[in-house]
## 1
Amino acid sequence: MVNSTNYNIAITPGMQSQVNAAKSLRFGEQKAQTENIADVKDAKIKYHKIKESDKYLVHGNWSEDYAITVEVDNSSHKVEEDMTKLMSRYKLITFVKPASKIKKTYLKSCYKIDLIESPQRYRGAGTKAVLALLEKSLADKETEGRIVVNAEITDGQTSPAGFFYKLGFRFVDKSMNEIMDKWLEKKIEIEAPKLTGMMYLPKQSINKLLMTSMKY
């Protein structure tokens, strides 16, 4: 179960955030019980903080910066082992002995974007919103700049993957990043790939994203 830590963003004159989406974009498979909302003019960004102690289970090849992999006892090991012995005794079926230990990957402390909305698009508002959250994450000793988002299609037509990819976010699935690279190079002639899945902001993308704040 994932719990959310309540807090409010204090938007200072140097952290005025707006959001870059004409419609509400909802992200996240494991929803927090409560969410935080930062209202800046006509924009909203909803997010929640995931703590390492929450044991937020993820899959895929996450970098060590974002996730920790540990070995845990396989709770079903004993039951399956007993069933294997029983079935083998009567020669009904052959089972592969289950592993006594299995590996699980959990997210480190980070901020997770759940929703971004604004009445206007392509005005840089979304970038400002992400920048404000990045500054907060960098100031947090637990999250150290980590931000994740589950990009998913909400209107049946578009995916926010293109928006986040341009900001430096990357999919956990590297094959999806290859598709996005081709799209950015205009080798894929579509408005934006309809890719979905977990995305994160790598450390090497942080400085580049912070530099974009000079444009606003």
## 2
Amino acid sequence: MRVARRTVFFTVTALLTFLLGLFVTRFISALQRPHVPYRLAQRVVCEATGFATTPWQVLLKFENQDLENLDEQSSRTVGEAIDAIIGKQDPNRFPRFEPRLFSKIPNTRGEVLYILVEEAPLIFIPGEAKLRIHIFDTSGNLLSGDDFSTGWRTTLTGMKIRSLPTLGKVLAVEAAYCLGGSPSLQYYAVVGKRIAPIYFARVNPKHWDMYEYEDPGIGPSFPELSVADWERALNSSNTVEVMAALVWLGRTNRDGPWQNPDAKAEAAKVQQLRSSGSVHKRLLELSQSEDWWVQAEAKAASKND
């Protein structure tokens, strides 16, 4: 009996030692493996299925879902996939950008792309809510990334992809000024490879004019575009490109105590463009357009002339 017990004891001990040694060997081997930065092509093994997949394929599984109200496990999965694709966020940044929407959206060239929208909500007063938007092609290649303010003391109440007459599919962001309500709408479209604001409006314009009081820093900036680039957009045959140029003209034309050098440079470009007689003529023409969107935007831009 004693011999049998000893045999069992030594057998179990040997087996455990073998398994422990195997685990340690594989663990050390994994640590010594050269680090490869996460790219879309990097393959990740799904523990549940054993099949290989990529962060992009993981993200595709959550297309058109409400990313704000996912269960805890799904939320963690989406967050890890996004970190793998675009890089982890600065750990010192507060509040963090949280995923809200992932969907297909066409650009002004008719190309079908993907848009990933994340929000850093308004937490403190004074303060602002921010959006971080990345654009991808259908293979998951990153085309652009922007993060920007959605308005001083403004809280976001909703966002979705909407299809609008003459404008096509846009990112519609609903917001409200946190002191006294005053709901507002912000529409963004993909112009080329970048997200661009194409329409701002207060639901109750009597409260105040969005162009008159809003921080001109709303939306992404385009320092790479010249005055000539904006004039070409203003004269484009594409309605969305025209709208983007009108928003740019309408929101950055005021002289103000801006500390941001980029904002000052943009304001200087606007003033230069507005000094052109052909631009005045074009604004008048657009303010009489039969397209309601163009007409409203042109009148708003002209009002602040």
